[in-house]
Amino acid sequence: MRRMLICAVLGCLPAAAWTTSAQAAFFPGDPIDAATRVGDVDLARDGTGGVTYVKNVGGADHIFVSRFVDGAFQAPERVDGAFGGSSSEPVLAASPDGRLVVAFVNGGFVHGVVRPVGRGFSGATALGDGSAPSVDMSINGAAMVSFTTTGGDVRVARLDRINNGWQTLPQILDVSGGPAGVGSGRSKIAISADGVAVATWGENGHVYARKVFLSGVSTAPQDLTPPSFGGRATTLSELPDIDAEEDSSYAWVVFRQVLAGGAARILARRQRGTEFDPPVAVDIGDEQGTTPRIDITPRGIGFATMSGATTRQPMIASIDKRDAISGGSRIFAGSTVPSTPTAAMADNDDGVVAAVIGGLAQPAIIRVRPFRDGVAQPDVTLTRPELGPVTPGAGLEAAADRNDGFIVTWIQNGQIVAGYGDRPPGVFVGLTRRRCCVPARTKFTWEPSFELWGPINYEVYVDGRLAGTTDHATFTLPTALRGTKHTWMVVAKDRRGQSTQTPTRKIIVDDLRPRQSVKYSRKGRAVRLVVRGSDVRRAGHRTSGLAGTVVTWGDGKRTSRSARLARINHRYHRSGTFTIRITTRDKAGNPTARKRTVRVK
Fold first, then answer.
1. d(CA 176, CA 221)
2. CB-based contacts of 543: which residues, under 8 Å, 6+ apart?
3. Contact between residue 559 and residue 529 where contact means Cβ atoms under 8 Å apart
């Protein structure tokens, strides 16, 4: 009974319309396409991006990309169409306006593909013989790909942001000339806003880093392996990962460091200019860690992730705004399958950590922990049981845009599946004036609600009842309002049904048209009008006052008068038949109009 009373008063305004939370809500995974392995997923700051993956077609593995546009994945596109044999190891990077770059391996060669803004994917360009590509692209569209040659060297290819041409740099990154970038020493690369990149790789048991410029590589490589750590000599350094800030002077590298006696720690080192700070342990310390990864914002705030080698429980370490990295902590729970945790950071310093978690006699699930301003939020499960079992070893990737938009991708029952963290439409306000008066067929206006992921649908409510919908930031009532005082509000809804509303505003309506009388006379080509206008006053109604009269003469000329009594003369300079329109408006905008046809010889 109480709900019926509310509906009677408010016109059954949907309950969802009253939510105004600015935090990202999480949505379980939706299938994108058949696939056997996730390659990579990336989002640019503007919310565009894509995912690349491996799909078996006719008995051969091929590389596909589904672009992310307006908050949804688009139809899959094959990007290795020139090759009949199997392809593998796809990686992808995104920059604003839908620009994408993909690298993959086919026939023992690393190939690069680019999708310029507003165009389709290019054909594949061979960057060199090799495997294990890593790619990153700056906000300005320049990209770098590092890879390992068949001879055991690490090389870099550069994509020009203007002509979209590829150039494989002649210098190798190796320091000693021995096998580099092989196995657990595969290279990773990150690029800053100015197009300067830094690559890291394993070589002869050490992890190295070297800057890469537009024209070549730095002559000062850095050996990141310390002689000892925690009182123990170091042996093998492996599994490096890297992410860079917007300023190319700063980056973080994490890697697994094996110590004498077989113990292992996850270490992190921060690049500061041309040097690196001393190593810091980012794991728990009571269990060997593995699979280190790192993701930071353009200002350097972020997370390093890893998992326990025995418990497979995910661990994280946070990097704060003072560039200090905390000791590790455990999240979620132990897992019976590799958890492969990964992080994604939005530009506003919010982030997520995702992992695969499998329990005894329980199917594996994808678990996400959101962080808002560094504070952990409740965990969320993204997997939908009805889609079938998760394939733990087939890849788990995550990406973020600048406004709390998150994507997590994995393989589930032979399909690539994506779960989302999607922020509701941004807070916005109505603009239509509150003072007297607006016309009976009011045109409401409001600020557009901010939304990176797709179009917004606006619902306009007047006196608690739905008056209409639009995808623009204006709406004119289809029927005139009756009475003087009314309220209105607008609800913005995104493609996932999340909503944000404006505060309720009042309007005062002048619902009466002004009076108008017209006297007309003509002599030859000269026309004289005498127009008298007045605003109507009536009990129970508001009067806004007379605004004036506008005459359009039908020959492209126009005359305006603000007086109640207007004497207007006009001369036509050519013969013909013209339609004169005389419109008198009040200050609310209500019109009264007359037409007159005049034939001039």
1. 11
2. 437, 510, 512, 535, 536, 537, 586
3. no
Burial class of 77 by CB neighbour count within 10 A (0 to 12, 13 to 18, 19+): middle
DSSP for 181-213 reads S-GGG--EEEE-TTS-EEEEEEETTEEEEEEE-
- How many whole angstroms separate alpha carbon 38 and alpha carbon 396? 7
Distance CA 345, CA 353 (A): 9
Going from the C-alpha of 226 to that of each of 180, 230, 248, 256, the distances in angstroms are 18, 10, 23, 12
Token pair in block for residue 513: 């048209």
Could you give the CA distance from residue 418 to residue 423 in angstroms, rounded to a whole number? 16
Tokens representing 222 are 């850095």
Question: 30-60: per-residue pLDDT in tens?
Answer: 999 999 999 999 999 999 999 999 999 999 9
What percent of the chain has a predicted confidence (pLDDT) above 70?
Answer: 96
HSE at residue 182, side-chain half, CA atoms within 13 A, is: 13
Q: Is 71 left (phi over 0), alpha (psi -120 to 50) or beta?
A: left
**pLDDT range class, residue 6, cuts 50, 70, 90:** very low
Angle at CA of residue 206, ends 200 and 209, nearest 5°:
25
Measure the CA–CA gap between 329 and 317, rounded to whole angstroms.
7
Residue 7, preceding peptide bond in cis (omega within 30° of 0): no
Structure tokens at 563: 């007086």
Q: Is 76 helix (H, G, I), strand (E, B) or coil?
A: coil
Residue 354: closest CA among 311, 438, 291: 291
DSSP conformation letters of 316-369: EEEE-TTS-BPPPEE-S---SS----EEEE-TTS-EEEEEEE--TTS--EEEEE
190 contact partners, CB below 8 Å, separation of at least 6: 136, 197, 198, 242, 243, 244, 251
Q: Which amino acid is at 565?
A: L
Distances (CA, A) of 373 to 13, 21, 325, 349, 564: 33, 15, 15, 6, 61
Token pair for 383: 């997997």
Q: Tens digit of pLDDT for each residue in 136-176?
A: 999 999 999 999 999 999 999 999 999 999 999 999 999 98
Q: Are 217 and 210 in contact (CB under 8 A)?
A: yes
Q: What is the DSSP letter of 217?
A: B
> Can you tell me the mean pLDDT for 413-435?
94
What counts of helices (H) and strands (E) characterise the chain? 1, 51
Check: CB of residue 260 under 8 Å from CB of residue 235.
yes
State how beta strands 438-439 and 505-510 pair: parallel
Q: 312-353 pLDDT, tens per residue?
A: 999 999 999 888 898 789 999 999 999 999 999 999 999 999
Query: Which amino acid is it at 19?
Result: T
- Both tokens of 33, joined, read 């396409």
